[in-house]
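Q: Structure tokens for this one, please.
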Amino acid sequence: MRTSSWMSLAVVPLLLCLACSPESELPGDDVVSSQSSALVVPGGSMLSARYQHTATLLANGKVLVAGGGTPSGSYATTELYDPATATSVSGPSMLTARRAHTATLLQDGTVLIVGGINSSVLSSAERYDPATNTWSAAAPLPRISYGHTATLLTDGRVLVAGGVSIVTSTYVYTPSTNTWAATGSLNAGMMSQAAVRLADGRVLVAGGSNGSTSSSNHAEIWSPTTGTWTTVASMNTGRNGHTLQLLSSGKVLLTGYVTAAELYDPSANTWTNTGATAVQHFSAPSVTRPDGTILMAGGSYNTMQVELFSPTTSTWSTVGTLTQSRVDHPTVALPNGRVLFLGGTTYNAQGNMQAVASIEVFDASATCTPTTCTAQGKTCGTISDGCGGTLACGTCGAGQACSSSNVCTAATCTHNVCTTGSSLNKDCNSCTFSVCNRDPYCCTTAWDSICVSEASSWCAIAQPGCVVSQ
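A: Here is the predicted structure, written as tokens:
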């Protein structure tokens, strides 16, 4: 993955799950979706393109979108999105601009925002009150933090664990007194881990970075009765950019980073692989729908499948396709079973990361009329039919190749892949196809020294002199 110039050293840990994702294992253009009647439909747009923002479903049915930003800076602005009308209006600005913070819906209906970054790492916290549509300062977290988890406890308090610098300290916030209190320390430092409250009120945290690896398989459980952490069985696979969801059975579904999903059984203290997604989802939050199924979509820049997990059968199915690639997109499950995907990041035609404003909605009750290859002007390869299925648009004749836009073009390279120069046609040979799937910059802007290095690493060199196997 090409690293954009705007990323400073202070920001790199925020994108841990992107920087450490095994891009060589990312699915290519040949991945297709299974047929489904479900549909992903447009949901309007946020007022501002945002990434590393939060989206919280309020009791009034609106969604509070808070903070985030673009590669050039952080926002204090907020929006109130109405799923019923697919429109967003400006909300009151937060007291502090921030991104990579946490947002927790408290039992009184207010929203607690903790930490994050703007020009520096923050300790500040604030609360949003939907009744008055105002923000007020909350007691600051006793340390600066981002990359932490914030979990609502059964008694209404909030447990904050882990975070930047791979800390072991954890704290509990009491809304009624607006105070923080230290609780037991983690047995191992964590950052960018996943967390979930178990059926008995304890809190499970797992994975993330531990200082020696960005994808740890370490897991611990916190007890609200004793305020202590206990190391539990390790996950089968180390992960980052993953999520945990509590099932009605009391078990926990772990998904993301790799295709294999896992179930954690608190009573047996075991992790068991359970089904697998069709593609790898990196930094694609999962959510639990009212019927108990779990949905996740996108993640990574060439993965747009929407996949659904059935706890009854422990299987995944592909139920749709996003129209916009997106990563780190807040995902919200609505009471009517629909699911929102709000903003996030994508890559532009120049290969640079950019924030997204669009909102898409998974709606299982919608109907869909599939498109056709002719209507889309496609002459080769496979494309989405717009309804969760695929269309086969044919093959190209001799001397032609199927371009990235699914149109037959002359398959020529203007120069050797081991020579820097102008951008190359993705389909001129197997090497350009492999490199440009992973690094679009090489086929949109220039075949620079990074592209040459990638060709040497990812292509089968047939003989000395930079002759690449076709």
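A few notes: The chain has a mean pLDDT of 86. The CA atoms of residues 167 and 440 lie 36 Å apart.
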